[in-house]
């Protein structure tokens, strides 16, 4: 069995890189995806889903170097369930309502923000297939 998840969204916080005891680098950051639609009552509804992304090795190092809060990014990876529940991570927000986020282990990261967006980044660089920077005219939408 195999699954792949593709998300396109905005980085919610600056990436944080750390190292495992064995010396492997791992970078974590959040990505928000947005959806807008009209509800049954005719009112517009805005829906945001948060993903917590983990990128390992060279991919994580490049993400830590070039991504920042607000950068547009495409992540291809797999869902990683919460070890305690087998589903998304669930918590209680400060206002008392419930919140949840989905954990994704990235296999490919594409930077969609251009240099003028302030994200910098090696547009067109390739890190052994794990990282691919997309030139602006290759963005599919």
Write a structural description:
Strands 1-3-4-7-5 form a 5-stranded mixed β-barrel. By secondary structure, it is mainly beta. It has one helix spanning 57-66; strands spanning 5-11, 16-19, 25-38, 44-56, 72-79, 89-92, 98-111. The longest helix has 10 residues, at 57-66. 7% of the residues lie in helices and 45% in strands.
What percentage of the residues does DSSP assign to strands (E)?
Answer: over 45%
N to C succession of SSEs: EEEEHEEE
| Helicity range | under 10%
CATH architecture, by name, is Beta Barrel
Distance between the first and last residues' Cα: 30 Å
Poorly predicted sequence stretches spanning 5 or more consecutive residues: 118-141
Query: Rg, please?
Result: 16 Å
CATH homologous superfamily annotation:
Nucleic acid-binding proteins
